[in-house]
Amino acid sequence: MAVTQVDGVVPHSRHNAKLAQRTAAWKPGILPFLIPFTLLLAFGLWSYSPSRTPLSWALSIVWSLPVVGVLVGIQGAWLIRRRIKRSVNMVPPAPVEQDFLIVLVPTIGRHDTYPALERSVLSYVEHLPEWFPYMRVDVLTEEGCEAAADIDRLATVHPLIRVVTVPKAYATANGTRFKARANHYAHELRIAEGEALDDVWVLHMDDDTGVGPDTSAALAQFINRQRRAGPDEAKHMAQGILTYPRESAVNMFTWLADAVRPADDIARFRALTGMGTPVAGVHGELLVLRASIEATIGWDFGPKAIVEDAQLALTFCRLYPGRSDWFNGRCYGASPATAKDFVKQRDRWAWGLVALCFNRTIPLRYRWFLAICVATWILGPLQHIGAVLLFGWLINDMNTSPVTQSVVILWALNFAYVIWTYWEGLRLNAVASTSGRRKWWEPIVVVALIPVFSVMEGLGGFKGFLRFVRREENKFVVIAKPV
Questions:
Q1: For residue 395, with 0-12 CB atoms within 10 Å meaning exposed, 13-18 middle and 19 or more buried, which class applies?
Q2: Inside any domain, residue 360
Q3: Which domain holds residue 56?
Q4: CB 198 within 8 A of CB 290
Q5: Number of Cα atoms under 13 Å in the Cβ half of residue 414
Q6: Could you tell me if 267 and 329 lie in one domain?
Q7: Are residues 319 and 388 both part of a single domain?
Q8: Which of 37, 142, 242, 459 is a good FRET partner for 73, with 20 to 30 A between their CA atoms?
Q9: Which tens digits make up the pLDDT trace of 418-435?
Q10: Would residue 222 count as lying in a domain?
């Protein structure tokens, strides 16, 4: 009987076939980029008026700065399209018979985060054992957390679930705090239990992010492929795609705003992590790492580390160049419940990433790309079209043309890419949803709201930058997790 293949993924049952067929049909679109690019370029060339004012010079720089990341993102999308064309020749996945999988789920253990944790953990024990006969789920929490009783009861639901409790008195050698401290405790525990081996893989997940049948099949295919690879070619780390199903959203506005995140996974992360150099960092969910390699890096990055996943990625670049990959598997998270939480989340990320960009313990050759991306992010409020027009009105200079006409090409490229990320990210989130498709009005609304979303993104980034400049005490803010 013929079955549909998704990047080499063959579903085990009819239950999985619909999702497999849906994801097989998806690939990054070209027209959602080409049409805006053509229109923006034509308008820019038509409306260009020579100007050498300070405003024109400033815009020529800040509106062109994102082009480095944009070109990398375009490369990533192109690599996915090429890989999908070749997927018919890929070896279908099979159960992982020789490797052991540990799913690590750190949680702050609050009552408002527990429902999402339960949903996520139950998805692991439902979907992963089909492809991973040797596995365990470690729920990592702090001694005395408020939802400790609920978490302990969750461990009785399935024999694969184990609760790992970090003692309050535990301290790392470098004084690392927050999630990195908990991850380091789990890393030391694996070493003590003799599990820091080449054939043991650690799948890092967030406590609000679940998996599906497509996730486990794609992950199994990746791990089996590394066993077949030679010692100089096998990968030690890989990242998949984070999506947000519509039914997991409690706020449609923030769900639309988060369309940009899966697009980043199929663009920059696909290009950089997939080519072996995760210099843009990684995100903390659907990150799989060989236990023996994690044992050589650890998570003890010091008391200022609040973006431990990105710091791990940059350290990995230095120690194991060319040994990371990307796989076409999806995990399923939930967007922040409110716009306030959305900004708060971005605030923490920016705070930690700015600090990481100035971290001299990491060679500059691994930091410069991240620094450009972060600079573009935190300058968001200042380069917003509304802010630019307001400033031009105040100084009586409404000419926003660049200093030379050729810059218009870069601007059209950058703005078209932003439209593409929201358009394609929304489509990815819709594919991950029960219906499998966007509602007719969603693409229109998400594009129309890009100026609003960019304000939210930029505000969070700028607030994080200000916290770094003020040298405020680091805080690992955990927002409430939707069910």
A1: exposed
A2: no
A3: 31-79+370-469
A4: yes
A5: 20
A6: yes
A7: no
A8: 459
A9: 999 999 999 999 999 998
A10: yes
Same domain, 255 and 115: yes
Q: Residues 132, 216: one domain?
A: yes
How far, in whole angstroms, is CA 84 from its chain's centroid? Answer: 21
Residue 475 lies in a domain: no
Given 291, 318, 336, which residue is the final one in a domain? 336
Residue 418 CA to residue 95 CA, distance in Å, equals 39
Q: What is the pLDDT of residue 86?
A: 63
pLDDT at 224 over 80: yes
Is 240 inside any structural domain?
A: yes
Distance of CA 17 to the CA centre of its chain: 26
Buried b (16+ CB within 10 A) or exposed e, 211-243: bbbbbbbbbbbbbbbbeeeeeeeebbbbbbbbb
Cα 241 from Cα 470, distance rounded (Å): 34
Helices within 395-441 (DSSP H only): 407-431
b/e map of 81-106 (b: 16 or more CB within 10 Å)? eebbeebeeeeebebbeebbbbbbbb
Question: 442 Cβ partners below 8 Å, 6+ apart?
Answer: 256, 426, 430
- How far is residue 108's CA from residue 423's CA, in Å, rounded to a whole number? 33
45-71 tens-digit pLDDT = 999 998 888 889 989 999 999 999 999
Same domain, 156 and 298: yes
Residues in the chain: 483
Q: How far, rounded to the nearest angstrom, does the alpha carbon of residue 305 sit from its chain's CA centroid?
A: 18
CATH of the domain at 180: 3.90.550.10
Number of domains into which the chain is organized: 2
Amino acid at 112: D
Both structure tokens of 363: 């060679």
Pairing between β-strand 161-166 and β-strand 135-142 as defined by DSSP bridges: parallel
Residues 74 and 106 in one domain: no
Helix 450-469 × helix 407-431 angle, to 10°: 100
Q: Decide if pLDDT at 400 tops 60.
A: yes
State the Cα–Cα distance between residues 328 and 340, nearest whole angstrom: 32
Quick one: the chain helix, strand, coil %, rounded to 5? 50, 10, 35
140 and 188: one domain? yes
pTM of the model: 0.92
Residue 366 CA to residue 276 CA, distance in Å, equals 12
User: Is there a single domain that holds both residue 115 and residue 72?
Assistant: no
| The pLDDT value given to residue 391 | 83
Has residue 329 got a pLDDT over 50? Answer: yes
Tokens of 13: 């049952």
Q: Are 206 and 285 in contact (CB under 8 A)?
A: yes
